[in-house]
Amino acid sequence: MDPRKIETLRAIMKALRTPVTGCPWDLEQDFETIAPYTIEEAYEVADAIQNGSRAELCEELGDLLLQSVYHAQMADEEGSFTFDDVIEAVNKKMIRRHPHVFGDDEARSATLAKGFWEERKAEERKDKPSQGTLAGIPVALPGLTRAVKLQAKAAKVGFDWPSVDNVYDKIAEEVAEFRDAPEDKKPEEFGDLLFAMANVARHLGIDPEAALRGTNAKFERRFAHIEARLQEMGKEPKQSSLEEMDGLWDEAKRLGK
User: Fold this and answer.
1) CA-wise closest residue to 68 among 45, 96, 101
2) Residues 195/177, Cβ–Cβ less than 8 Å
3) Is 136 helix (H, G, I), strand (E, B) or coil?
4) What are phi and psi of 103, to 5 degrees?
5) What is the pTM of this model?
6) Rounded to an integer, what distance in angstroms lies between the CA atom of residue 30 and that of residue 36?
7) Which of 105, 38, 103, 24 has its CA nearest to residue 69?
8) Which one, of 137, 159, 160, lies nearest residue 150 by Cα?
9) DSSP secondary-structure letter at 237?
10) What's the Rg (C-alpha) of the chain?
11) Residue 212: alpha-carbon gap to chain centroid
12) Which sign, positive or negative, has the C-alpha torsion 191, 196, 197, 202?
């Protein structure tokens, strides 16, 4: 089998899922148990891109591709669809959504109109059961990302703050409500506060997940500096005071870490 062919990967997956001779672990899996791995692999692709490692990205893209093959194999076994159906569906969708590339001469010469994607998606959904404005946003998305998408959909029908200044006021209101909330209501109020912060991000064109990942990375760098400096002193963080570590944190900031 040629390891550079998609058919080889499909054959491997089929062998893993073959009763009696296949892998016991793979045979036990279903769509629900594999879904978390699919999400995890997508994040690992994003991490590889962030790290700038093309070798790592190559490997992680393979792992993500395996997830599509895995789900398609299980669907094939139950008679729902095949991997070929998956390929056909995405090929048709890409051609359908890019008439300015794959259409006739008139379509290719036309300028892509604002709102084209939304109109095209709406047209594709017209034969499906009627759904509300906020339908179609995956529940499994990261919370902040899903919040932004929910807000953006609501904004398209006019449900939005007229200015980001209004959202700043809302954040101040949510902070006050969070501070005053009884313990059993803290989680709910904290969620409201995060939702308002996501709204600011949307108004300013900031990706909240990317922003938080950047802050996480910055925290790791600066805390690593604290640990390294304490090690030079023959100490560990638990042997240090908050004041000392805070001073080393400020030192890391001055050094641009």
Assistant:
1) 45
2) no
3) coil
4) -80, -170
5) 0.65
6) 11
7) 38
8) 137
9) G
10) 25
11) 13
12) positive
Which pLDDT tens digit goes with each residue over 54-96? 999 999 999 999 999 999 999 999 999 999 999 999 999 999 8
Residues 100, 112 contacting (CB under 8 angstroms): yes
Can you say whether residue 147 is alpha, beta or left, with left for phi > 0 and alpha for psi between -120 and 50 degrees? alpha
114 — pLDDT class (breaks 50, 70, 90)? low
- Scan for tokens 């938080």, then name that residue: 212
Torsion angles phi and psi, residue 191, rounded to 5: -60, -40
Positive or negative: CA dihedral 247, 249, 253, 257 = positive
Contact 122, 131 (CB under 8 A): no
Q: How far is CA 17 from CA 14, 76, 185, in A?
A: 5, 11, 47
CA distance 157 to 166: 18
Which is nearest to 189 in space by CA: 200, 206, 202, 176?
A: 176
